[in-house]
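Human: Can I borrow your eye for a moment on a structure tokenisation matter? Separate attempts, laid side by side, tell us more than any discussion would. Could you pick a protein and write out its sequence and tokenised fold? No explanation is needed for now; the record alone will do.

Assistant:
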Amino acid sequence: MSKLLKHRLPRLSLFLTLILIVQFTPSQAQGASTDSPKVGQMVIINKTPHDTWPIELKVSLYVEAPPKALWRVLTDYENMDEFVPHLQECNIVDRRGSKIYLEQTFKHFPITAMHLDLEIKEEPPHKILFKRYAGNMKTYEGHWLLEQAGPKSTIFTLEVKAEPDFPVPQQVMAWVLESELPKGLLAMRKRALKIAGQPEPPYSIEIISR
């Protein structure tokens, strides 16, 4: 073997290794960077720095129904107790221009009963903002977003910041929200499919946490 080849072998070996890394890891890198769910998926992202308040969550679900069907579900405030898990009451107490004021009570909540008085601002046809003005949550604010994913499908997203006004460890509250909020989105998906006249797909939803 020539001295020149011996000299270049370590660099050649390193070059080949880098090529293999690039070839066999792109799908993982792409999967880690995208927030948007595909058909049959829900993506849950906890944006909260370790053990701090408020908890910041983003939950996105692929829904096989158009945005207008989900909009009807989201704005059907006084019938939400019929399909949202644990919701006992949801009443409109006031309307002021583009703002709506709701009182919500959740029963059988895993920690304690939760009372939320929310100010809602609708930005039709794709966004609804909310924030608490009373109740036993110190912080509860965020938005719902409806993004067209196809002719009859939607990326359905909830982003929320939450901090209770009662004593509970941050990790416990985070676990409760990550468990309960997705159930609400799935219930709304089911309702939207019914409104759109779409059969519920036969596959189960894959939940991806990041």
